[in-house]
Design brief:
Belongs to the delta endotoxin family. One of its GO terms (molecular function) is toxin activity. Keywords: Sporulation, Toxin, Virulence. InterPro entries: Pest_crys_N_sf. The radius of gyration is 33 Å and the shape is elongated. The protein is built from 14 helices and 14 strands. It has helices at residues 16-27, 35-41, 67-87, 160-171, 173-185, 196-202, 211-218, 229-254, 259-280, 289-292, 294-314, 325-357, 405-431, 433-444, and strands at residues 3-9, 102-105, 118-123, 128-133, 136-138, 144-146, 283-284, 287-288, 364-365, 368-372, 375-379, 382-383, 385-386, 391-392. The strands form six sheets. It has a four-stranded antiparallel β-sheet with strand order 1-4-3-2, covered by helices on one side. Strands 5-6 form a two-stranded antiparallel ribbon. Strands 7-8 form a two-stranded antiparallel ribbon. The protein is an alpha+beta fold. The protein has three domains: 3-146, no CATH class; 160-357 and 427-444, Pesticidal crystal protein, N-terminal domain (Delta-Endotoxin, domain 1, Up-down Bundle); 364-426.
């Protein structure tokens, strides 16, 4: 059920236990609860004393709401009241007190109920009752979210975490497309431009790539990637090559500068890019640049391969660029870097997947104990939680001598984990498509190291 019931003040009831039993009988009339089970619930749903024993938020404790949020929550409150009316109708002779039915929230966790759980306080002529809408939660900034926590045993539902992951994948589209364009261009896919002309077409003038935007976005995939100073410095080195290519090399090339002079300039770019790639593919002083620097490394590799292509065309030692030793260098660099980037992207996916699955608890037990005669009988209630989404499964209780509630819960958890695993892998892979696809284009250079020029 979406709503739970707790009794606070029973001082107005003639026979409190009988009153509670009658209310609970109505409340659970659609369930399979037996009269004995209803009677056993009586001791568990009574909050002794007054509101001081229950963390209800006073008006001053409630979130500050915008007009839109207030209007939305007013509508949700009205629906909550209607649901309570259906689930817990007034019994004969019971009346709602004037000014009752006020909605609030839990200001702190209370047993299984997290802070922010909506509560409807109903004061009648017989009692004060708290109705908790445990499938929802109101955050400190006034946002209303649903938290499904009573699925069918093997039902696995999509949740907000996976939706957010897909949103993050879209956020990196712009610079990721640019990285892919460089990789595709190595095969002549950008207007047939090759080498330095390709780089100039994609990074004209003093433009370069927006390093801050790229690393800020990538920090959603690799935490704090934008905080690793060495990565930013290496990105600056790559941008330096791109800017120099457009502002210095291209103008000199258009003025019929000798191949030897152009080649010497290209060698400086080659050496700088080789250094950048080496730095980003290594770990230094306990700092791992290999993950945080992946997008910069991909850009550096494609830029380096384009530079190799230009070096083949400007090689002063050959008349046919296909005979340049740089052609073999392209094949070797493309293959080794494609393998490295693919493996590193897989490693990032595995890290993020493991971190995601670690948010899912093992099978937990929240036993309920009742007094029977002079003893106490405890009944196990198994469940599991997902801290990433705030999800909590329903309780799994034994329903017969041969029933294994713990195994049913474990099976449900396994199904939930598998669903999260599949979705997380797909989402993380989507975020890194630009890396995998760039590596695929580099691999194609083994057969076509130099595209045809018009």
């Amino acid at each position: 059920m979406a709503v739970d019931i707790l009794f606070a003040d029973l001082s107005r009831a003639r026979n409190p236990r009988d009153y509670m039993a009658r209310k609970l009988q109505d409340f659970y009339r659609t369930s399979r609860a037996t009269p004995d089970e209803i009677r056993a619930l009586v001791d568990r749903v009574y909050v002794e004393g007054d509101h001081n024993n229950f963390p209800l938020a006073a008006p001053q404790d409630l979130p500050k709401l915008s007009e839109g949020q207030k209007k939305f929550l007013d509508g949700e409150t009205a629906l909550f009241q209607k649901l309570v009316d259906q689930l817990s109708p007034l019994i004969e002779g019971e009346e709602i007190r004037s000014g009752s039915d006020w909605a609030t929230l839990l200001k702190a966790d209370f047993h299984d109920y997290p802070a922010g759980t909506p509560v409807l306080v109903r004061e009648t002529s017989q009692a004060t009752i708290y109705y908790l809408y445990h499938l929802a939660q109101v955050t400190r900034d006034g946002r209303f979210t649903y938290v499904p926590n009573e699925p069918e045993p093997n039902e696995v539902r999509a949740n907000q975490y996976e939706k957010q992951a897909r949103i993050e994948a879209l956020a990196i589209a712009l610079w990721a497309d640019l990285l892919l364009s460089v990789a595709k261009g190595l095969l002549g896919a950008v207007g047939g431009k090759v080498g330095s002309d390709l780089l100039n077409a994609l990074f004209p003038g003093s433009q370069g790539i927006d390093v801050k935007k790229m690393l800020d976005d990538f920090s959603a995939i690799v935490a704090e990637a934008n905080k690793v100073q060495t990565v930013s410095e290496q990105a600056g080195q790559v941008n330096g090559v791109l800017i120099s290519n457009s502002e210095y090399y291209i103008p000199r090339k258009s003025k019929s500068t000798s191949k030897r002079e152009l080649y010497e300039t290209l060698l400086t770019y080659h050496n700088k890019l080789t250094s950048v790639i080496g730095t980003l593919q290594s770990k230094s002083a306990g700092v791992d640049y290999t993950k945080a620097g992946l997008p910069v490394c991909v850009l550096a590799i494609s830029t380096h391969l384009a530079t190799y292509q230009e070096m083949a065309f400007q090689d002063p030692n050959v008349s046919d660029p296909h005979e340049s030793t740089n052609v073999d260098s392209i094949r070797i660099a493309a293959a080794s870097n494609a393998a490295w980037v693919g493996a590193k992207a897989d490693e990032i996916i595995t890290d993020n997947l493991n971190a995601r699955l670690a948010k899912i608890s093992d099978v937990l037990n929240n036993p309920v104990c009742d007094g029977v005669g002079s003893g106490v009988v405890c009944k196990s209630r198994y469940f599991f939680t997902d801290d990433a989404t705030g999800y909590r499964s329903g309780y799994y209780e034994q329903s017969g001598c041969k029933d294994d509630a713990q195994k049913r819960c474990a099976d449900a958890r396994a199904a939930y984990v598998e669903n999260v695993r599949r979705q997380c892998q797909a989402d993380e892979r989507k975020k890194l498509d630009w890396a995998f696809e760039s590596a695929e284009h580099w691999t194609s250079l083994k057969e076509t190291p130099l595209p045809k020029t018009s």
